[in-house]
Amino acid sequence: MSEPLVRTRDLTKVFYEESRGEVRAVDGVDLICNGGEILGLLGANGAGKTTTLRMLSTILRPTSGEAWIVGHEVRNAPEQVRENLGFYSASTALYPKITARETLRFFCRVNRYPRGKVEDRVEELIESFGIRDFADSRVEKLSSGMKQKVSIARTVAHDPPVLIFDEPTVALDVLNAIELRRIIERLRDRGKAILFSTHIMSEAEQLCDRIAIIHHGRILAVGTLQELRDTTGHHYLEEIFVHFARTREPSEAQGEAERPGETGP
Amino acid sequence: MRLTVPIRAVFWLEIQSLLRDPRTLLISVVLPIVLIPAILIAGNWVEERETRAAEALTFRLAVEGERADLARSLLNTQAPNSGESLDSRFQLVSVEDPWEALASGRIDVILEGMDAEGWRQGVRDGSIEPGATDPPPELEGAPRMRLHFHSNRTASREGAQALRTRLLDTREARRDSILLAAGLPAPPENILVVEAVNVASPEAMEGALLGRFLTLILLGLMALGGSALATDTLAGEKERGTLNTLLTAAARRQEIISGKLLAIMAVAFGIALVQVLNLWFFLGLGIVDIGGAFAVRVPTEAALLLLVLYLPAVALVSGILLLTSAYARSYKEAQLYLTPVLLGLIIPSLAPLLPGISLQSAIILIPIANLGVAVRDVMMGDVQPGWILGAWIVTALAAAWVTRRSVLALEDENLILGERSVEEHTGGEGLFRRRVVVWILVLWAVKILVNFNLPFTDIRLVSLVSVGLLFTLFPLAAILRFRLPVREALALRMPHPGVWIGVLLGVPAGILTVLGVFQLVDTVIPVPTEMLESLGQALMPEEIPLWHLLIVIALVPGIAEELTFRGVILHGLRRRLTPVALALVVGIIFGMFHFSLFRIPTTAVLGVILTAVTLLTGSIFPAMVWHVLNNALAVLASRDALPGVDSQWFAEGVGWEWSLAGVGLLLVSFAIIWRFRTPYPDVGPPGPPGGAMSRT
Question: Do A60 and B417 count as a contact with CB atoms less than 8 A apart?
Fold first, then answer.
């Protein structure tokens, strides 16, 4: 098999907090994600999901370990990594003063999409994400559902092979969340490698091809839902999650507070 | 710099967003367009009104005192110059209690006439406040005219002023008539006629005036204009969450910063241009008059040169605004930082207003200030290409450095996300490395405060406190605060014994080299000999015994200053710079702690030498010994206590051949030290493992 599109090896991030001292937010994470696959990162708030994904998108520097996106290492080739990557989260906002069309054009250009093809690509995105009706309205005037469409369109503007969705449904109503999951499935079917983080069990169950259970910065288990069921003997993902979380000694499970920068209120 | 697609994309995004934001447009463009002429018009109006009012005023005057008769007769004398009678503006009124009337504002001035004897009596029993000025002794017995007025009231103030002028004129006229009456006509050939003839052309004068203010005006306008966009761009984006989006795009950090910087430059420049045109328009219409001196024509070539000159200044101002925004976590925080930053930018642009500042001085090293002076020179028609180029390069380098800092700020997790990474915040080493620059600045400020505020002047006490105590406490404080390992922080290691040969050889060589540097400085900024002698006298007064001087000038500084500079400061900076840069930077920092302008270069050279020795030997001791011996030799030489050494060398230099010999000897000494080197560990920025030093 060829090199996976996303790979991490012993990826670690240590923070310092005044009250708790050193915190290993991500602790030796090994992951693989191939094209045409949705890998779910399932974990509670503060488990290290966002930190892991931010290291993959080069916003944070790993304290140790390595990560590759399409063969480019995050520390040595951050620009190439980002060229091959689209990052979407509740915290990635859009510029309010420009229109939807200008937004897409801007993100094509800033992601070095081939110059002559930008306008065609913008048209294509407007068409396929159903943006046509409000393509020339300023972002600040759009409803949250419209903004979400523009936001996803800008994430894939430069057609990257790897997409990262960091708790994308966290602030969405049910219909928008369903719509988003449909889009993500469609992107998977077009061969993208998709990393999808969530703390909602049902979401992971429905959407993800494989699930990595992350707890206290460590990956406790990775596999398809069926594989996880077989290993643990539990049927529901919730039970499977609890099964793995309990295997860690209770002292470590205590007092894990919200990390600054993690999503959530 | 190539304008890549991402740079242009970011640039246009910023411009577009700004143009679509009515509030920003209103505050940064429309408001100043209306406000600046409004302020000027209002200022003119107030001034005109005041002048008219003052001209229309009549002053109510009461005459008092035992010599009221004399006072009245003085007032009735025809004014000598104008021929105008006094009573046209002064109205003599008689009131029962003039003092109460003055206090309540019913009269404006009291003229009190008194005899010398009465005055003396009054001063003695305390009923009269003696005047601020004593009359010359020959006027000891003359009568006194005292003016009483109320400075809070315009009429009173102006009245007293006018009356005073009038009385002085009258006095002069009387003196002349007395001299004439006494048969002492002054022969005209003994009286000097003084006339001032200005040989500067009107253009040069106008240019000088405008040139002085131009930098201040333009820079102020640009900084104000650019600040609106700057606050919004990085700080505002952090707040809105768009920075997160932008940072996951493929564009390099450098490209993002470049695009934003260009946008701020364009806006700053654009707004300044709009304001200048705006002013020009109002001036042209004659609606506003700020004096003909500003309404000059600048020839096209000079205007182009000015444009080129201001380019790095615009870049620097914009860069500083952007950096401010990068360091702020929110829009509000950015606004908070902006006021001191704007004030800080204004200060260097005041340089051309200082009298006697020439570009051929240390001012060339201060960004913005140097261009301000260059612009003033150009406006006066005095173009010195070499110096102007130098000023341009200095400011351009500063702009590049500031831009680089902004790029680094985008890579700083701490600033982007408010996250703290462990190596920087566990306290200890890492934290000190981050804070060392701030600590140096604080030490510098403390040193200035101590130097200029010490309550005693004895050089022994001054040196013990401002050098001995300060430079011992500093490393101690750093070691305690950051829990630094003492041996490493102070480089307390024994060097190879062979090094000492190099040190002994190096000390006299170093002195000759430094004297050469001093001569070099002297040709650029001539140092007055009196200044040197007074410094020598201040540093090494004759009345202090030699051995005291050896302790306070040689031993104490040699040890304490090394603990600070080659100890903790070098330790703190070692991972930030390559060894060569480190030697230069620590040396220059050392120089900057010697506050007189001509001592900075010479002590900086000594600092570079001492740092280089420490880096090569990995030990503080050779630098300490070198420093002590260096200062001791200087003390001995100044007392003519060294055979064959003339103390005058230190004031007059030793001649080029000696300095060159010194440099040669210094090279030999360093060759010896190099031969026995045991390099300072862990030098150089992290990245390629080890520094250049550890690879050798």
Answer: yes
